Amino acid sequence: MKNIIRRAAASAVLLLMLVVLCSCSKLTSGLIKVHTHTFYPYFDTVGTLSSYALDKEEEFNQNAAEVNTVLEHWHRLLDIYNEYEGMSNLCTVNRLAGQAVKVDPDLIAFVKYAKDMCILTKGEMDISLGAVLRLWHEASIAEKPYVPAEEDLREAAKHTGFDLVEIDESAGTLRLTDELASLDAGALGKGYAAERAAELLSKKGVTGYGLNLGGNIRFLGSKADESPFTVGIRDPLNPEELALTLNLADCSCVTSGDYERYFTVDGRRYCHIIDKDTLMPASYFTSVSVICKDSGLADALTTALFCMNFEDGFALISSLEGVDAVWIWIDSSIRYTMGLDSVISLV
Fold first, then answer.
1. Quick one: which of 106, 101, 48, 102 has its CA closest to 74?
2. Is residue 13 pLDDT above 70, yes or no?
3. Which of 282, 274, 77, 283 is nearest to 160 (CA)?
4. How far apart are CA 162 and CA 114, in angstroms?
5. Closest CA to 83 of 71, 72, 92, 73
6. Residue 347's pLDDT is what?
7. Mind listing the pLDDT tens digit for each residue in 317-328?
8. Does residue 314 sit in helix, strand or coil?
9. How many helices and strands, by DSSP H and E, does the chain display?
10. What pTM does this model have?
């Protein structure tokens, strides 16, 4: 049964990062030649597509170009800071809050999916939290960073909730019924886009590829020698060391943590993942990773689990088929679901 956890101790794991270990695997015919392509600056991060499929360079380059097109498309649609000629995106919808905005059908599909994820996570992953997230963003980029006032956060929270999002599929429009409401896809966009790229490659029959979009990792099949891909979680106090590794194939591995995007005020660190109940950065864990087939689902769940206590988060994961998770606390303790027993190795 899945409702079992495993416990482990890791040495001083205070800062964690998912990395794909790219050492070549040996085949009877020699070494796997790995093709790689880097994408930037989609979703304000660095992305990498890697092939362990023994495909020809020109074939890989064509696949990389098509993935680039997909990522650029979704980056533009979900951008909340910039608008682009010839399209209405989330930035447009937010700017024109109160008005019905004609948008690409893909954006409507994304918002519908985001609503489903909001319902699944009981509101812990909610792209309609934009009014609150904007206050935290402004505070973090100020010349002298500060913590938003509680009364301002509470006021902003009045302008959140999916009941303020009007989706008209027949007209092809989105409308925020509250002029002070806004959408923010940061908790879901990278994973959703990565899954759309994986979907494109899968339809072409591509296997043996790995896409890493800023730590949102999506594998298609296994390597050419049928071995899995290895994902490691590093021990930050010993950067050359790993706390644990996962041997994975044909699935996603996504992590949310408090270690990459944060700012400091009066010696205290504030991360970018905001708890909808407290309107403050979540502080249950240092890192949460979710492993499942769909990268969009994994992205949504990592944000949600990061904002839930362990008992509630474990109950959510246990209710979902084919989904596993790893939780890491600031005291370096680790728990993970039983489904990972055969693929996890503790260092």
1. 106
2. no
3. 274
4. 10
5. 92
6. 77
7. 999 999 999 998
8. helix
9. 8, 20
10. 0.91
